[in-house]
Specification:
73% of the residues lie in helices and 0% in strands. By secondary structure, it is mainly α. The protein has one domain. The longest helix is centred in the middle third of the chain and has 27 residues. 1% of the residues are buried. It is found in: Membrane. Its main location: membrane.
Length: 128
């Protein structure tokens, strides 16, 4: 590999990390709050649990691929790129950030009215 290609590789890696950072500002971190505001913590926890599985498996895959030939790092980067692109395409085609029907809070208007009346009928007394 020539020196020029090494610089291109560093530039591409930097761009990849920069574009990957967009998912934190406007991607999967906010989607849990958009689809289910009341259950955002639970939804994010479940999605993040599945998202950490590749982080657990990847060291073993990288070790198996690069053990005999260090030049196989190219394959590792191709696999990472393919996973990112497939995830992006799936989210663009199937993903949504709209409030889900199961996350809508159904309010009983009668109980709400009673609660409001209770608050207004209570009188504060002060001892002076």
């Amino acid at each position: 590999m020539t020196c020029q290609l090494k610089y291109v590789a560093v530039i591409l890696l930097t761009a990849g990390v920069a574009f990957g950072g967009f998912c934190f500002g406007g991607g999967f971190v906010l989607v849990a709050n958009d689809i289910a505001p009341r259950y955002a913590g639970v939804v994010f926890g479940i999605s993040n649990t599945f998202a950490t599985i590749p982080g657990i498996i990847s060291p073993y895959v990288v070790g198996a691929l690069t053990e005999k030939d260090p030049n196989n790092w190219r394959i590792v980067f191709f696999i990472c790129s393919i996973i990112y692109v497939i995830g992006m395409i799936v989210f663009l085609c199937l993903g949504s950030s709209e409030l889900q029907p199961w996350a809508i809070e159904h309010v009983d208007n009668n109980n709400l009215l009673l609660k409001k009346n209770d608050k207004t009928t209570l009188k504060m007394t002060s001892e002076t």
